[in-house]
Amino acid sequence: MSNTKGELQIAGPAPDAIPAVCPALVNMQEPTLLHASPPAKKGEPRFELTFFLDREGYLCLTARDLLTGLRVKRDAQVFRLN
């Protein structure tokens, strides 16, 4: 999900989320994970994202900007899973 400034943010559950799944709010201290300048056009992909779990139990993110081709995040810890 992105805001009007083109920033990628993780939001709460989707309206059609399965009730048995317990959503967790992540990265509360800095909810904006990526900045896109200029913002992507509506419906156009801007970032290629890869998620993985590290040895310490963190959900980590690597992101590449599709407009510039540059990697903008590498192995960034996003959320610690219990």
Structure keywords:
single chain, 82 residues, mainly beta, 3-stranded antiparallel β-sheet, globular
Give the helices and strands, then pairings.
Elements: E1 8-9, E2 32-34, E3 47-53, E4 58-65, E5 71-80
Antiparallel strand pairs: 1-2, 3-4, 4-5
Description:
This protein is mostly beta strands and 82 residues long. The chain has one domain. It is 0% helix and 37% strand. The protein contains no helices and five strands. The protein has strands at 8-9, 32-34, 47-53, 58-65, 71-80. The strands form two sheets. The chain has a three-stranded antiparallel beta sheet, with no helix packed on it. The model has no long low-confidence stretch (mean pLDDT 78).
How would you briefly describe this protein structure?
By secondary structure, the chain is an all-beta fold. The protein is built from no helices and five strands.
